[in-house]
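Exercise (ungraded).
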Amino acid sequence: MDVNQDHASASATPDPTPAAGATPVYLPEPKRLGTLARLAPEPMKVVLNWGRRYSLWVFNFGLACCAIEFIAASMARHDFIRLGVIPFAPGPRQADLMIVSGTVTDKMAPAVKRLYEQMPEPKYVISFGACSNCGGPYWDSYAVTKGVDQIIPVDVYVPGCPPRPEALLQGILKLQEKIARESLGERYGNAAGATDAAAVDAGARPSAAALGSGLVAAPPTPGEEQR
Amino acid sequence: MTETTVGIGGAAEGTDMVLNIGPQHPSTHGVLRLRLVLDGERIREAEPVIGYMHRGAEKLFEARDYRQIIMLANRHDWLSAFSNELGVVLAVERMLGMEVPERAVWTRTLLAELNRVLNHLMFLGSYPLELGGITPVFHAFREREELQNVMEEISGGRMHYMFNRVGGLKEDLPAGWLGRARQAVADVRSRMDVYDRLVLGNEIFRGRTRGVGVLTPAAVHAYGVSGPIARACGVDFDLRRDEPYLAYGELGDVLKVVTRTDGDCLARFECLLEQTHNSLALADACLDRLTQLPPGPINQRLPKVLKAPEGTTYAWTENPLGINGYYLVSKGDKTPYRLKLRSASYNNIQALTELLPGTLVADMVAILGSLFFVVGDIDK
């Protein structure tokens, strides 16, 4: 209901966008729409966000030590299924939440990005452990990507090396709070209202051609640009 | 990676299919990648593509001092952290000619064996999971939590203990810990029949593993395979018995080197299982000995700047997954000049090129899982 309204009104207002570059003082159109969307269909927002936060089908990107703690968190003692996190997603295309647990190396980074892009919207990412937060103990390694947030957007960071299963549970609770606060206008308003190329780059999903293309190159290692 | 080779005459020769498994695939538990060339359902060639987990630990060792190295060393094989620390400190102690207090030696032996149980439990649980049986992994993690509680109480870490120091251990055991450790060992042992009967007695499990993926002793020697996988092929070699380090020399009557002759997946699993039983017995023997030992120091006072004298040494230990070796070259600095790491899984996984061709795709998961590898240990 809300989504339809949002899309309709956003597509009807492409005219202020050329002017937005010249006069950046005025509020851009999608922002005002977002406010409206927040006000009007509150029950829809509550129902959608409630549904989303308690059925997070998780895709475990298990890379290193933290993957073992992730498995421990899914087992009987810690049991995150009681929080509505379901670890049976057959692959990224069926998942809502990706948990990157472990060291992302430069060789692995393109695959991480590729699998993130294969996930359908709405999608969330938890970075689990010091390595995927910032490189962790491998901060000065030549082969390690210093944080998975260089490749994909991260919603919640869980610190620790490896974090305890309880820390993952806390991270999941934080993510659920974040989903509960989420405004549909912000999520869908921008992407639908953006017509010029710069705005598309900022908020839109990758095109079908981008998804079918070859693997992207790994981000450059700091200090290797000179070579 | 999707090259297709078309044979001459479609009917006479089929089309080879190149199948890429991984790097993100549930059966590889980690990020191992396999490139298979298939002929119908049969695997014609298999090539493990490694390096997706390469973190450059060996180079980082050269930028860390001898205290800090331990912290990186226990992370390459994250399931046997304590045993990995042990190799580094043994090498440095040997370079320094350092004598380790008796209490520290016995406590290290105890913790190494508890770590071995932890490691084996993970595979005892995950291997049936890969074959389609979900239940055992829940049991395995219950036992793991028991032992991890005990390990956490002394070291503060659930997986990466950081409890070894050059010259001993970080600190003495807390009061009453020996009793709690004994209780945990007894609890784990009392429930080990889950694997003896529920897993090993399951006819589907036996049907999927018996006679599958037979590794020959010749291949074991050729590829440098070690650990329970080598012993399952009848290669009777265990550093704990054949070149005793720590207190294993005095544990000869308890230590049992488990061997099988079949070399198939079932034999590998049986080796792992019986080794777990033996490790629990060893842990009990260490606990007995520790209660009799007179009080004394558990570590040594170290100089502020720890420098190994110039020279080289090679320390190897029988890690849960196989032989783990550290070749340490020192030029007398605070940091090693070179610390070469010989990890068990790296050699074990190379045998896949020999093991997989000729088998069915459906058996690939069974064979891969039965090699008990940790990807960090392959790629370092």
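Further reading is listed at the end of the chapter. For now, observe: The two ends of chain B are 25 Å apart (CA to CA). The interface with chain A takes residues 23-24, 29-31, 51-57, 59-60, 63, 71-72, 75, 78-79, 122, 137-138, 141-142, 144-145, 158-160, 375-376 of chain B (CB under 8 Å).
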